[in-house]
Amino acid sequence: MRSQENFPRTFSFEFFPPKTPEGKAKLRETWKQLGQLRPRFFSVTFGAGGSTREGTLETVLEIRAAGHEAAPHLSCIASSREDLKAQLERYRSNGIRHIVALRGDLPSGLAMSGEFRYATELVEFIRKEYGDQFHIEVAAYPEYHPQARTAQDDLRNFKRKIDAGADSAITQYFYNADAYYHFIEECEAMGVTVPIVPGIMPIGRFSQLARFSDACGAEIPRWIRNKLEGFGDDTASIRAFGLDVVTRLCDDLLKNGAPGLHFYTLNQAGLTSTIWQRLGL
Ligand code: FAD
């Protein structure tokens, strides 16, 4: 973890673009509340294939207009060079200089198409077209990406994104800190020297967490899964236990030199701000 300890800590909060007027109003309250914690930036996800194109930009611009830093995500799967160039141009002309560059996942049932197969190609494209105008974040997977042929392949593929010009990375969420420490050691051994900020998923609802984790390949350790399942519909106990588990994880990561935390807020302020307060940040 030595390479990570020397970076300034970066705290950030992730949102998805809401689809309804009620969702927009709710998210406005959320970022206003979380904005008081003075994160380094907020980030806003992007539906692969461009399904949230307008919503992502609109949300980022609204947050920026209130004086906060906000970074849009951009995924390249099922997009053409022309589409991506147009999207980057819109980001740039709106003064945006920080993006999270991803491959993306298509909704099931949609076939893959487009000119980019991997996030590395998007990072290369951005650097070729725009030089150093954007700070580029990429995704990292301490428990490895579910589609990787082997863990070693996935590490090499992660390094490709850094070599292509990514400035920093945010991880998929995990509940096992050792996976992150091991991943960082492997990255150090490969000569990767960028900040790799742990992604943190607060625990609010078990069924939702189980669904996400199955889809993205993040492991819910057996003891946590059993405990959460045992609470059944008792939401208060799930939240109380989840807060203890996730606060302890964050505390452990920061004490061991993690260069900040990136919270997957699911557009809710409550759990994230409670964890923040408990950590004394
Ligand atoms: P890549 O880095 O391209 O990797 C994808 C897979 O391909 C991996 O298995 C990798 O090992 C393999 N691979 C890479 N390069 C090669 C190569 N040259 N040859 C063979 N195999 C290769 N999804 C969205 O749709 N929208 C979002 O806004 C979004 N935000 C995210 C934010 C974060 C912080 C994270 C961690 C994930 C996010 N995702 C988002 C999910 C992400 O798009 C998926 O996990 C997706 O499956 C992989 O994206 P990637 O950018 O990591 O892909």
Quick tags:
binds flavin-adenine dinucleotide, 8-stranded parallel β-barrel, globular, single chain, alpha/beta, 281 residues
Secondary structure topology:
Elements: H1 2-5, E1 10-15, H2 21-35, E2 41-44, H3 53-65, E3 70-75, H4 81-93, E4 98-102, H5 119-130, E5 135-140, H6 151-163, E6 168-173, H7 177-189, E7 196-200, H8 206-216, H9 222-230, H10 235-255, E8 260-264, H11 270-279
Parallel strand pairs: 1-2, 1-8, 2-3, 3-4, 4-5, 5-6, 6-7, 7-8
Helix pairs in contact: 5-6, 10-11
Residues 45-46, 48, 73, 75, 100, 102-105, 118-120, 139, 145, 147-148, 153-154, 157, 160-161, 170, 172, 199, 216 line the site of flavin-adenine dinucleotide.
Number of strands: 8
Put simply, the count of helices is 11
The gross shape turns out to be: globular
What is the third-level CATH name, the topology?
A: TIM Barrel
CATH architecture: Alpha-Beta Barrel
* Overall CATH class: Alpha Beta
Question: How far apart, in Å, are the first and last alpha carbons?
Answer: 21 Å
Structural class: alpha/beta
* Small-molecule components bound: flavin-adenine dinucleotide
Radius of gyration: 18 Å
Walkthrough of the structure:
The structure is a single chain. With 281 residues, the protein is α/β, with parallel strands linked by helices. The protein has one domain (2-279): Alpha-Beta Barrel (TIM Barrel), CATH 3.20.20.220. Helices cover 48% and strands 15% of the residues. Helix 4 (81-93) links the parallel strand 3 and strand 4 (98-102). It is globular and about 50 Å long. The two termini are 21 Å apart. Bound molecules: flavin-adenine dinucleotide (FAD). Flavin-adenine dinucleotide (FAD) is lined by residues 45-46, 48, 73, 75, 100, 102-105, 118-120, 139, 145, 147-148, 153-154, 157, 160-161, 170, 172, 199, 216.
